[in-house]
Amino acid sequence: MLKVKDLHAEINGKEILKGINLEVKPGEVHAIMGPNGSGKSTLSMVLAGNPAYTPTGGSVEFYGKDLLAMQPEVRSHEGLFLGFQYPVEIPGVSMVNFMRAAVNAKRAYFNEPPMSATEFLKMMREKRAVVELDNKLASRSVNEGFSGGEKKRNEIFQMAVLEPKLSILDETDSGLDIDALRIVAEGVNKLKTENNATIVITHYQRLLDYIKPDFVHILYKGKIVMTGGPDLALELEERGYDWIKEQVDKEG
User: Which of 13, 29, 87, 156 is in the most buried spot, having the most CB atoms within 10 Å?
Assistant: First the structure.
């Protein structure tokens, strides 16, 4: 599905990613952990196509296609979804209109007819149930006046509607209380199939108590310095990031 080879990237002339190698296959859940400033969010932004981040080397293939050559909207249509750490508010744009426009833009990309209002509202009802999203929230402007937990729940709702092949969740647990965390994580788990994959970017083990990763990668100073199974996250929780720094500095 996704093949990242020796990826380098910078922002404002400063190199952040210094040779990322990562492969994600359908049906897998990958967790990326690391201290602040290690490049976790930069990786998500580069994959999504944020123009503020400039790839300077390496390659990224998504189902055999050159991901870095695609415009952000094309990446989305091809099946890549990014859940933001801080979802933005869009005053004056209702969730219904926003999501219907997104769905029909994707359908147009694949030369499919637009979904009717009746069909779309039926799908909205079905998908809302996945993340226990209140109908009143779904009818309001995008994220306007939402709490942190509601915004994150809304992100997973959008993921449910768009049905991406690869979802990248950038610190989706940030600012969530335990109930909101559970609901969001359960939504992610319900959407998992053998044909899609998820990259979970997080600082903490607590999210991984709900979303079980197949692989855990430790990102440090712009590189993946350690990869393992779920036990690696538990060891990191116990020993802290200083342990990683000591290991890398010792080897370097």
Answer: 156
